[in-house]
Design brief:
Elements: H1 2-5, H2 8-21, E1 52-58, E2 64-69, H3 77-88, E3 92-97, E4 101-107, H4 111-120, E5 129-131
Parallel strand pairs: 1-5
Antiparallel strand pairs: 1-2, 2-4, 3-4
């Protein structure tokens, strides 16, 4: 009963100490996993200082490319792309642009999906997103 009233971090600490006492610390599946844990180094109040621009570019025919520009340098963009690729079932990469810096590129029209992902993970606030395109 008391275990249910504890916070999530306290439960994880207790679980970790129990695992170490029982020499079962090799079991990593019981711990919570956050893919953006080491990507976000700042506090929650100052997540992103400027606007994040989400654009769509027409390639050839019906092919499109979604670009995300303006994310903070504190975030590990390769980890963000890795999660987005799995979540949206598309390919993507981080491109170093001469004028805009590092830009995320995703195949297809992923504007709504990437906006939801960035807000849901707490990397960007909704009012900091600027969506461009047709």
């Amino acid at each position: 009963f008391i275990f249910c009233l504890l916070s999530k971090t306290t439960k994880l600490i207790l679980l970790d100490s129990l695992l170490q006492e029982n020499n079962m610390s090799n079991i990593e599946n019981l711990k919570a996993f956050d893919p953006f844990a080491d990507a976000a180094k700042g506090d929650d109040d100052a997540v992103q200082d400027g606007l994040v621009h989400v654009r769509i570019q027409q390639r050839n025919g019906r092919k499109t490319l979604t670009t995300v520009q303006g994310l903070s340098d504190e975030y590990d963009l390769k980890k963000i792309i890795k999660v987005a690729k799995k979540e949206f079932a598309c390919n993507g990469t981080v491109v170093d642009h001469s004028e805009y810096g590092e830009v995320l590129q995703l195949q297809g029209d992923q504007r709504e999906n990437i906006c939801k992902l960035l807000v849901q993970c707490g990397l960007v606030k909704q009012d900091q997103l600027k969506v461009h395109g047709f």
